[in-house]
User: What shape does this take?
Amino acid sequence: MTSSFGPVKKSGVAEQIIARLLSLIREKQLRAGDKLPPERELAAMLGVSRPSLREALRALSIMNIVEMRQGDGTYISSLEPELLVEHLDFVFSLDDSTFLQLFEARKIVEVGIAALAAQRISDEQIAELEKCLARSSASVGDHQAFLKADLELHELITEAAGNPILSRFMASISRLGLASRSRTVAIPGVPERALEDHRAIVAALKARDPEAARQAMLNHLNNVEQSLVNPPRDEKSSASTDESGRG
Assistant: This one.
């Protein structure tokens, strides 16, 4: 593993270090839980100064990609998606158009996935989707449990489409989508509406009707997007109360 680091260019040193370490993670040369070499040794491997290395590691720590343990060294984090997108909701809150761009991407990719899934889904996969619907129905009042069931349903549909490249696209989109889902699941009425949308999607998949599946998924994404753009009045007044702090 040590020979994989190699020296980096001197311009934009911290950025180069970050890029090198991220590349090693993507290539599976560094894995979740791996301990990095000691700072002096790692700086020598990369051909950089220790201050530049510390700057890069601090940035990676803020992104939850590495964990710096006092007196023990630096480790690659668990790399769990929930951990990696922890700060995205703040980023998205600075500009809600980012959420809208995310939905635009989902409507291009996920709608097509639903149509493919309708043609390729197995009876066993339909049974799993129906179990997922049951879990969603039982957890409408539990945001975290509902969110988990929501993610699982969309993952099952992507798997049913049987296209590994689309699966990789959706994995990236889903990681970003965790931030928007965490926001929408807390909006009054959205979980109930999402559950009905999910039932329509599953019904279309069960009927092996690609056009109905495409339309059902599009309707679902439009409904969730609309809940972000125009949240229910109760939600708006609640937000105003929270901001004023005085009801």
